[in-house]
Amino acid sequence: MNKENISFYNQTTIYFQNNSWILLCIILATAILLRLPNLNGNLWFDELWSTHVMLRSAYSLGYLALYDSHPPFYSMFMFLWIRLFGDSEMSVRMPPLIFGILSIFLTYRLALRFTEKKGAILTSFLMCVSPVHIWYSDEARPYSETLFFLLLAIFSYYKLRESKSNLIWYLVYSASLFSAVFSHFFVSVYLAIISMMCLFKINKVKRSVLLLNILILVCLLAFLGLKSMFGTVITGQGHLRPFTFFELWMLFFNWFLFGNSLWSINPYRNDLNVILQNPLMFFTQLIFLAFFINGVIQIIKESKSREELDSLDLILYVFSLPLFLLCLNFIGFKNTYIERSVFIVLPFFYIILVKGITGLKAKSMSFACTIFTIVLSIITLTSFINKNDEWTVYAPKPDWRAATTFFHNELKDTTKRVFIFAVKPPTELTYYDSRFEEYKIKGLDVSNKTLRKLKQLSEKSNYFVNKLYLDLTRHIQFRKERIANAQSLIFFDNKINKENIYETMSLNNVKTFYLIHKIYHRGDFRSLLEGVMKDPRFQLMGTQSFKGMEIFKFMLVS
Asked: What is the dihedral angle through the alpha carbons of 356, 362, 364, 368, rounded to the nearest 10 degrees?
């Protein structure tokens, strides 16, 4: 490296040292600008299930706590939020946006523990332009909030070990870790990690932290016991995937790195042909694998020479959750939401990656690799934005506003009931048009099961249980009345067939019906459509295609 290059490198380092807060503010402002355009986009099924559908009343909130696959903290928070600010698209997505921006700031602060300021700035930049982070900062789901509270818990844990006055940091630590654990069950892995660090490292707060962790664990076990008694504990679903070493590779070096946007891969193609068919992708992955390995090497070297940096913690933060999922797969739990479940690992992965890039011995090579990473990240971001209609981080959100406008025009000149059939529930229609109602209320039978249990308990003259039983009965009756008065009913079942449709239409003396195909969600719709098309009792009247869906209009002719 010649003198001019050394001088330029030193000037760059000094610039980062002196202007890091200005650069961070620019990155945070850019992050907001990148996420704002998506706030008012179409809501999709999972977002509605987390807000509009199941947070209409306190009873729905109770049902969600007992039967949803996630813990209840995010739902409780959003229940209060909706009461204050409504459930418009922008309103329900505002908390994830706020948590997402704050998580970039916390990533910067945590990165300062493990790398220099220029490395912390690069890490926060990667979070800013990450398609994965942008996606979950714009989705009304608990993942952005979970990441924020986990980062805050880890940050406050380190502050506890450094601060002379610990009361505030104790409150922050316990509240943030409790919130994270009760937002996603897998955060309990980090609860175990922090407890393990307390056991093996000598510090003045380890006993208090361990007691707080035990208290959180007791609350979690009590909640799981309540779910098993009155609800259900979901351990997996058929549309999920087993977590394998190949999935780990694609998670780290395609989804984390490129948001599945530079090379968009079907996540259900779990085979090596994915790599063989994309040699440029594989070559790029190998480059970043080298950076990542170098980052791990730098961590190990630092941990031997400067123990106070706690560098080895990073390795635990990155690998503990993936290893936990691999173990679950090994013992038979093969159905996992892979990407969204491991989303909380993203900032720690970036920190190690950046350590590998900035820790190269040749300063000119380190600078070149930094520029290469920045340029590739911007290209990835551009590709993500341009692939609005393709599967990238996740399936694109269907255009339900356009579909609702179509149905509005179809229904404006009639007072007759219209039936809609689907393999996967088009719940979004009930949000964008109040005339629609789902005939099959998901969870209604389970609620009846809960009612029987509550009725048995209420016979013991417990006032609160009896009141809950009566209120829940009224709530279910209200839902049935909405179905009876709805102008358009939605029927959905993965096993629905032409005979089900004909029987339903005949019993209700309805002539017109629609089939809705949600393109990006699994289900044997093609078999249903083929059966109806070939049946002489039905006549196709027209088709409409919108982003992410197809609508087929039929008439009963016999």
From this structure: -30
In the chain the domains, ranked by start, together with CATH numbers, are 3-386 (no CATH), 400-556 (3.40.50)
What's the whole-model pTM score? Answer: 0.89
Structure tokens at 372: 């290469």
User: CA 311, 340, 70, 398: dihedral to nearest 10 degrees?
Assistant: 160
Would you say 94 and 47 are in contact if contact means Cβ atoms under 8 Å apart? no
Q: In the chain, what is the straight-line distance between the N-terminal and C-terminal CA atoms, in Å?
A: 84
CA 202 to CA 317: how far, in whole Å?
Answer: 20
Sign of the Cα torsion 245, 250, 252, 253 reads positive
Q: Closest Cα to residue 545, out of 412, 403, 397, 424? A: 403
Please give the Cα distance from 249 to 286 (Å, whole number). 11
- What's the pLDDT tens digit per position in 511-544? 889 999 998 876 788 999 999 999 999 999 999 9
Q: What are phi and psi of 420, to 5 degrees?
A: -125, 135
Q: Which two tokens stand for residue 349?
A: 């992965």
CA distance linking residue 135 with residue 37, whole number of Å: 12
Alpha-carbon distance of 90 to 42, in angstroms, equals 10
pLDDT digits (tens, 9 = 90+) for 190-236: 999 999 988 877 666 788 899 999 999 999 999 988 888 876 766 55
Q: What is the Cα–Cα distance from 301 to 311, expressed in whole angstroms? A: 9
- Quickly count: other Cβ atoms within 10 Å of residue 38's Cβ: 18
Phi, psi angle pair for 461, to nearest 5°: 65, 30
In whole angstroms, give the CA distance from residue 233 to residue 230: 10
User: How far from the centroid of its chain's Cα atoms is residue 84's Cα?
Assistant: 24
What is the spatial distance between Cα 505 and Cα 159, in angstroms, rounded to a whole number? 65
335's tokens: 């159905």
Q: Give the other-Cβ count within 10 Å of 402's Cβ.
A: 17
The dihedral sign for the CA sequence 11, 109, 299, 355: negative
Find tokens 């040749």 and name the residue: 362
Bridge partner list, 551: 516, 544
Task: Calculate the alpha carbon distances from 270 to 30, 87, 251 in Å.
Answer: 35, 37, 12
- Token output for 518: 């949600």
